[in-house]
Amino acid sequence: MADGICHLGGTDGPSFRGTGTPVLAVRPARDVIAVLRLADGDGDGDECGCGDGCGCGCGDSLHPAERALVRGSPPARRRDFAAGRAAAADALRLLGRSGPVLREARRPRFPTGVRGSISHCRGAVATCLATTRRDISAVGVDVERVGRLSPETAGLVCTPAERDLVADGDVAGRLLTVMFSAKEAFYKAATALELPREPVFHDLEVRPDPCQANGSGHANANGLCLTPAAGLLPDGCTVRGQVRSVGPYVWTTVLLQPGDGTP
Q: Nearest CA to 229 among 186, 258, 192?
C-alpha cells in the first residue's frame, strides 16, 4: 500500500475482517500503520461486542489470552476492549505480524519488535497505530468525537497560546477536540519512554501546520506542529503528528523519533 488512505472495508462492501464494520487504514510513514474501525450506525449503541456469551459475536476473533484480560468486566468495557484489539489485529496483519496484544499495567503490550498504541471511544469505535521501524521510539494514537468537550475544557487542556486559537465560531469545537486528541496521543507515546516526570496537558503545544511536509516531501494538509515542554523528552527527540477528520470523529497519530533517527 502506498502512502495515503486505504479503505479496507465498509458498509458498501466486505470489510477486512469480514464483519461488515467500516475499516480505514493509513500509512503515515514507511512501515507505520494506523487503522480506524468505525461502528455501524452512529456509534452510540450499547451492544456488548465482547464475544463472551453476549451473542453478538463482535469479539469472537479475540485471542483467548486477550479475552481473559476482560473476563468478568462490564459489557461496555468488554465491547471497547474487543474493538481496540480488533483494530490492533488489523494493523499487525498489515505489518505482517500477529498478536496477541496483551497488557502491561494500563498500556497494551504488543509483540516483540512492534511499538503500538490503541484508543477507543463509545460505540466500539477504535483505532490502533503500530510500527516495526527501529528509528521510531514510541507511538501514540487517539480518537475523539467532535462536540464531546465543553468550552470550559479549554482552560484545563489548552496553553494560553492555544486558547487564543480556540475562538468562538463553527470550527472552535473541532479545534479544541484536535488539541485534546493530540495531547492524549502524545501522552501515550511519551509515557512509553523513561521521562523525568509524567506529562500533563500543558506540556505540549498544538497548532495546525498545513505546510508540514510528509514523508515524501510534499505538503501535508493533515499536519500538526507539536512543541513539547523543554527538558521533557530526551535530547534531539522529534515529535511528529497528524490529524484526520472521519465523519464526526477526530483521529490523531503521534510518532516520537530519537535524535539519531532518520526523518
A: 186
